[in-house]
Design a protein that fits this description.
Layout (H helix, E strand, L loop, with lengths): L2 H24 L2 H10 L4 H40 L8 H14 L4 H8 L7 H13 L8
Helix pairs in contact: 4-6
Length: about 140
Amino acid sequence: MTGKEQRSHTERLEKLLDYLGEHIRSAPGDELIETAREQGCAPGEGNTRLKGFLLKVFKSHQQKELAEAKEGYTRELASISEGHFDLPKTKEGRRSLFIAALAQASQLQPAFTLQHRELSEFSDEDIESNLKKLAQLGLLPEEK
């Protein structure tokens, strides 16, 4: 095939594709759907598959972020529990140390009191856990 014949075939193919594209753009949607059905295609099937695929990818992405957050939380808990902190032995001692720490770091107090009404709803486990976190951050007051 010579260059001129090749160009001629290419030009005819381009014109044909342009005509088909224009026909599809200008044809009523009902007509296109009916034509697809006559040829054995289910027009909504592709849409359903695409939607299912996108939902699967989105959920997978969310699950990945959730798994990463859980892993970070587990690492943080392990780090806190592995640390050795000299906390008071009694429940009352831990509560008073916690209150002293909040008084020293006054910017933290609203977060705890808003959430737990003047700290009265804090369990001893909550106080101990928070004392360990504050100790890890270096926010516990020095013992005298």
